[in-house]
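Appendix B, example 12.
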Amino acid sequence: MTLNRIAPEAARLARRPVLQAAVDAGARCSGREQYRGLFDRNRGSSPAIWAAQQAGAQKFCEGCPVRPACEELELRYGNGDRNSDDLVRGGRRGQDLAIDREIRQARRLTAAAAADWQHLLELNAEARERFTLAFAMEPGPVTRTGLRRDAVERIGAMAMRAADRGEAWDIAVYDKTGADVTFDFDFASEDSVDLPAAA
């Protein structure tokens, strides 16, 4: 799945950050001032004018490569009211979106929103997670603190290569409580061998 095109089934399975990135990167209307008023009904517009505007908005959305992502975002978190015909989002009338959200797809959308929330919590926890990587080399001990998981993997792999050459030993990773979590990382568990210790 690329950000410039997304299929309806992929949109239904995607988490909110992916959907939002797709819309931001590929929507035909994104960041274009001239389309700003196309998707919302003006207060004073007659039913005939709104019907024409609505048809134009729906036609415009048909050619959008990320229309399914836009629709899915609107279904999960968007606007629309069953009693008010005043907008078009993702090529659909607000009333239709509201009916799907509240009746036709309520269970699926509730589950998707809950999964989005869980995904966001996991991303936030991962972003806050920091580790200390320590190892010894001939010149002395090396300690890197405040590292994210990806940095530990990268630097740990370099330390392991140095260990294979006999240039590093006592490689360990500690979490914020000081617990040894070395074997929670791929670089340490790849070969399933003991980490080199000082001779």
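The chain has a mean pLDDT of 90. The chain is about 50% helix and 15% strand.
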